[in-house]
Amino acid sequence: MADELVHYEVASGIATITLDSPHNRNALSAQLRRELSESLAKAREDDAVRVIVLTHTGPVFCAGMDLKEARGAGAGDQGVNEFPQILDQLWTSPKPVVARLAGPARAGGIGMIAATDIAVAVKTATFAFSEVRIGVVPAIISLTVFPRLNARAAHELFLTGDTFDAERAAAIGLINSAVDADALDAEVERYVKALTLGGPKALATTKELLSKPRPATPSEGFEEMLALSTRFFASEEGQEGITAFAQKRKPNWVPQD
């Protein structure tokens, strides 16, 4: 039986999903894709999980698709057909997803980072949309990456395939922050703690709101948003949060010290 390439553990409401295939730089092999999708499904379905952290072992976060498996493949059997499902699992997860990068990401690995809600990388991490340099198109990942990047950066980096550093990745919106290596875990923990303060249903619905197409003008959306706001103010979760605020205590969804 093949060794496990993706590890899954839950502690204090945090599901940590770890890519552990350092021999091929955590490339998205068929086995890793399958195990990653299974782990994401498990985290999404577990009511005890509040936040998901996607991390890795080894010096590289993810090198993209496993090119050894893709070599010689035809149009119908290149083995990437389930990758959109992984990106969708990350993008639509009702639980916030935080990416922790202690090293570089390339191609499909960047697509996963873009699909998460918050991403933190060490300053020494590098990135590249390297697809055009091997004669392929960054098609699937464009659907998660384009909403993050400004248009000029997207044109430059997708067309040239040039490598860029973590500080530029933060400046163009791909990641949230670039930190020194010894500050990485503290920065991830800071975001995770902040996310656990939000009501679970409120977080899930806010994620949906962030992904909705914007109305042409604010007035076109006021009626729908008023109904949504009213529903949450009257909900059990909303009333608990309002009561907790008035009583100067933590709401019941926040981990108690």
Automatic annotation (TrEMBL):
Pfam families according to UniProt: ECH_1
Name of the featured protein: Methylglutaconyl-CoA hydratase
Gene3D superfamilies: 2-enoyl-CoA Hydratase, Chain A, domain 1, Lyase 2-enoyl-coa Hydratase, Chain A, domain 2
GO molecular function annotations of the record: catalytic activity
Family as reported in the entry's similarity comment: Belongs to the enoyl-CoA hydratase/isomerase family.
Alphabetized InterPro entries for the sequence: ClpP/crotonase-like_dom_sf, Enoyl-CoA_hydra/iso, Enoyl-CoA_hydra_C, Enoyl-CoA_Hydratase/Isomerase
PANTHER family: ENOYL-COA HYDRATASE, POLYKETIDE BIOSYNTHESIS ENOYL-COA HYDRATASE PKSH-RELATED
